[in-house]
């Protein structure tokens, strides 16, 4: 009878579907004080869960019933089984090349400047209203206004008020830039020997490019300036005496050389004792300067690099006695 009953029950179980058999299994376990649940975990975590369950069962067998909530027990168990690790580091704040923190306004300034450069620096082009720029750059009003102040300080943009106004692409002021750098170099304690050494290097570099790139118009401008200098004497101002060198920097076609030459020319004039000398001394110096300029211009137009470089080097060496 027992054997027949078992066979009948087995036949009855086989007739059930898989879902029915799972349901029966869960009902039996529930009657035993257990709950059936399904977990989907990464393969690498299976061992962790098994270890937790084993430790939990061991405590129950020992008659230990922690007062903690199940969640606290679970967290405690995980903490015990997980290697200690350092707390996550706070995100590092961006810093510039000098190590100073970079603000959101400065980051936005760089982004807007790059956009203007990518556009080809179209002076006069409207970039948009404040509201439009806040939306485009995803920036707060405070950050945008900070960036605009930086852009305006460098003459990169200007704010136009009224109907149809907004932020407009501007044209930077070369003389203002040269003055700003000159002021910093004075603050840094630049010495006359540094000014002369830098001026010699830059003027020789510009001279090589002038000889390489000079066209008919450039030749005409050189001769025109040399002719205009014929009228100068000891009463001439620095702008008149340095105009020849500013022209060479311009004719080089290199914006960087033009800027840096302009800076050292301003510094050389600021440290010069020329205007404190007697009138006969100044007349003598101006006559010598005009002679050097004629010879340099002649060598450049003849494409005589060696002669032109020699004249420039002599000219700058002669300035040494006129600097403080």
TrEMBL record:
What are the entry keywords?
DNA-binding, Transcription, Transcription regulation
Describe the location of the HTH gntR-type domain by residue ranges. Answer: 102-172
Gene3D superfamilies linked to this entry: GntR ligand-binding domain-like (1.20.120.530), Winged helix-like DNA-binding domain superfamily/Winged helix DNA-binding domain (1.10.10.10)
InterPro entries recorded for this chain? GntR_C, TF_FadR/GntR_C, Tscrpt_reg_HTH_GntR, WH-like_DNA-bd_sf, WH_DNA-bd_sf
Pfam families in alphabetical order = FCD
Presence of the UniProt keyword Transcription in the record: yes
Q: Which SUPFAM superfamilies does the UniProt record give?
A: GntR ligand-binding domain-like (SSF48008), Winged helix' DNA-binding domain (SSF46785)
Question: What protein is this chain from?
Answer: DNA-binding FadR family transcriptional regulator
Natural source organism: Paraburkholderia atlantica
């Amino acid at each position: 009878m027992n054997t027949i009953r078992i066979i009948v029950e087995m036949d009855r179980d086989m007739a059930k579907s898989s879902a029915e058999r799972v349901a029966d299994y869960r009902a039996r376990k529930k009657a035993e004080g257990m709950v059936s649940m399904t977990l989907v975990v990464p393969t690498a975590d299976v061992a962790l869960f098994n270890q937790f369950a084993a430790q939990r069962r061991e405590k129950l067998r020992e008659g230990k019933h922690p007062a903690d909530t199940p969640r606290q027990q679970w967290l405690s168990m995980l903490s015990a089984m997980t290697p200690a690790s350092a707390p996550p580091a706070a995100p590092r704040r961006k810093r510039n090349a000098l190590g100073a923190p970079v603000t959101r306004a400065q980051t936005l300034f760089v982004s807007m400047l790059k956009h203007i450069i990518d556009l080809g620096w179209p002076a006069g082009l409207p970039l948009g209203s404040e509201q439009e720029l806040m939306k485009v750059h995803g920036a707060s009003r405070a950050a945008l206004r900070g960036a605009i102040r930086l852009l305006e300080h460098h003459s990169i943009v200007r704010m136009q008020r009224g109907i149809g106004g907004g932020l407009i692409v501007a044209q930077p002021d070369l003389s203002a830039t040269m003055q700003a750098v000159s002021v910093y170099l004075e603050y840094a304690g630049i010495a006359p020997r540094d000014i002369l050494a830098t001026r010699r290097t830059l003027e020789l570099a510009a001279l090589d490019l002038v000889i390489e790139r000079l066209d008919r118009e450039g030749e005409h401008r050189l001769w025109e300036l040399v002719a205009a200098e014929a009228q100068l004497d000891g009463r001439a101002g620095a702008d008149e005496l340095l105009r020849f060198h500013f022209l060479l920097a311009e004719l080089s076609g290199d914006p960087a050389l033009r800027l840096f030459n302009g800076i050292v020319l301003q510094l050389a004039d600021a440290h010069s004792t020329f205007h404190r000398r007697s009138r006969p001394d100044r007349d003598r110096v101006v006559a010598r300067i005009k002679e050097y300029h004629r010879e340099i211009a002649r060598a450049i137009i003849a494409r005589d690099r060696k002669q032109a470089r020699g004249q420039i080097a002599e000219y700058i060496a002669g300035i040494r006695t006129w600097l403080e």
